[in-house]
Write a structure and sequence with these properties.
Helices cover about 70% and strands about 5% of the residues. The protein is mainly alpha-helical and about 500 residues long. The chain is globular.
Amino acid sequence: MKFYKFHSNKKLLIIAFVLIIGTVNYYYFIAPTRWHNDNSQLKNNADIPPSLTLITIALGPFRGLIADALWWHISDLQEEGNYFEIMKISTWVAAMQPENPFVWTFHAWNMAYNIADEFPTPDSQWEWTYAAIKFLRNDALSYIPSNQQIKSELAWIIISRIIEGNSKLNIYYTKKWIAKMSKALEFGNREELKLIVEYIKDNPHYKNQKSKEALRIQELTNKQNLDPERMLEIDKKFGPFNWKLPITTALYWIYKGNLINYKEGDLNYATVLDVAFFTTLLKGTVITNDKSDFFITTNNLKISDNIITYYKELIAEESKQNISEEKSAKYKILKDRFKNLLENMIPIVKLFNKNKKAKKYFNIYKEFAHNDKETFDEFYKNNLQRITKEGPIKCKQSIIEGYCCKAFILAIGNQYNEIEPTIKAAESLYNTHQKYYKKTNYELPSFENIKTAAFCKTVLWLTNKKIADKLIKIVSNPKDILYIKNCKDLKINNIEIMSLINENITKQ
């Protein structure tokens, strides 16, 4: 009996000794090594409880089990609508699994949509939305810089939250975005990008400098995480763009630089690229007036040729990848997307008095749509009616602008008997839309603002100083149906309208 007790105590002593030695060995040798080699965000992270940090790093291979348990908890919290608790725990999971794109995109989506909408004021909603953008742009991409899922989600949050949706909030958000980008860019055009690229080449240590130019570029490359060379490459291929606008940044993130590969795993992000191109075409210009609160985003038809060239190259490249074009589902989808783009674009281009270009696009359309029966006039009429009734809201704004543009051209030609019915057509479309979407998130900017946007584009096409002065005189008359307030003080993409007029006439 005594021997048994001694033997049992001896076994307990041995087990205790082994546990002590194992614990000492673990905490003094294994755990420090794991801590030193850990590449996640766990170490020195003030958002994570120290106890969770220690346990997670110490457990090493079992970290996934902790993350899975936290995901189950997030699922329960999601059902309860406890978004703030979800945000806290999602931060922990992102720190544990920094190379898992779903962790980042889920967390960003929760901030940009669920949490942002919990707040009553536009300013607080903006802060959460922009926090989601920074979370992906600066944090997620620092760990997985080439991940297409992260970039696609980043582009989509910018498009869906900053540009589209609630029309009043969109203006507020876009102004906020431009204010942030103005710290990095003065004009946001191609010429400025060229200067920035040259400056970096001449000053390789600009990140350590304190000059005004260096600080601007640091804002662009460090805080906005944008590469000026890549911006310039995209601008040359598809521009000219205004890089201070949010839609251009969205295009920057979704565009991969090749023509075909937008698929990652089971997900295909080409649709986001389509939306980015189309939105850039219809919302790629900003017109402002420093003497008032005037602000409107409008179309950038200068990029239409480049976008059409891109899609033609894309379709041609896809046809080479498949022996049978007819059997290629992807080929068919590409053609349908291109067909839809042209059906919306051509009526707008024609209304802006670009008849030759509109007919050139129509011939391309016939080639891809295999439609030889419909004439150009029939195509224009049918699609104009379709857009005015059920087309995208961005297209409707451009159609209304197009009518106004036509009225300004009529004024230049002294065809005053045709001006009023043209303006009435624009007002009728505008009023019909506003009545249908009254007190919703899809109202258009004011009719006066749309008319002003059309004036700015019309006057830039003029190549004769006397004609430009004549139009400005007409629209400066308060009694005229085409009256524009403070027309000489208008700016397009941050450049004064008068400077642009003089530059345009000088070039001719």
